[in-house]
Each structure stands twice: as structure tokens, then as C-alpha cells.
Design goal:
single chain; mainly beta; four-stranded antiparallel beta sheet
Length: 127
């Protein structure tokens, strides 16, 4: 059974950067499409970014495009989310998720598609 553990969250000021990491165990990141989602209090879960299992295709939510970068290291079974130019509206709990797939270039944006989720890591951006 795949287990995911996020890390790297914290409290930062607006304009700062953070890198979130997601460690995958019980599976191989090379077999999965990976996604990052976030949820702020009182709001619906929001798609942030996703990467295909082949690693060549990525997708981003409109609110983070050009500021966030998703990447993966299959050798370490890790997925990362580099977040730059953080804004107070980026404050949320961030979750990584996996989708086992045979489709090398598939980059799912819909949360309900994903099979496994981490417990989340909190990111708080102060103004």
C-alpha cells in the first residue's frame, strides 16, 4: 500500500519561497502520476500542480502558474513543489497524491482520480 508523507511547510512572509517534498513508500514514483493539491479553511480543495509518471508533462493551477514548479526524483521516490513569490492567498494545507497509471503522459487535475493521499503540510504566508 502506497504511503505519502509531505514535509517542508512553514510560516513565511509574502514574497518568500518554500520547497515542499513528498516521500513515497510502498510504491515507486516512476509508476505514478503525482499531484499537489491544497485546501484553505472554509474553501474547497484546489488543484495546484501535477506531473506525469514519465516526468515530461506538467500541469498547474491558474493561480500558481509561473510561480510554482513540480518535479520528481524517481531514484529517491520523491516529488517536490517549489513555490516562489508566495502570497497570503497561498496559505493552505498542501497535500500530495498519487495515481497509478499505465499512461505515461497523463496528468490528472481532478482530485477524485487520485488513489492515495498524504496527511498534508501547512503553509502559512503572512503579509
Amino acid at each position: 500500500q502506497v504511503q505519502l508523507v509531505e514535509s517542508g511547510g512553514g510560516l513565511v512572509q509574502a514574497g518568500a519561497s518554500l520547497r515542499l517534498a513528498c516521500k513515497i513508500s510502498g510504491g515507486t514514483s516512476g509508476d505514478y502520476a503525482m499531484g499537489w493539491f491544497r485546501q484553505a479553511p472554509g474553501k474547497e480543495r484546489e488543484f495546484v500542480a501535477a506531473i506525469s509518471w514519465g516526468g515530461r508533462r506538467t500541469e498547474y493551477g491558474d493561480s500558481v502558474k509561473d510561480r510554482f514548479t513540480i518535479s520528481k526524483d524517481d531514484g529517491k521516490n520523491m516529488v517536490y513543489l517549489e513555490m516562489n513569490s508566495l502570497k497570503p492567498e497561498d496559505t493552505a494545507a498542501y497535500y500530495c497524491a498519487t495515481k497509478l497509471t499505465i499512461f505515461k503522459s497523463w496528468v490528472p487535475r481532478l482530485g477524485s482520480v487520485y488513489d492515495a493521499w498524504g496527511q498534508g503540510t501547512q503553509v502559512t504566508v503572512s503579509s
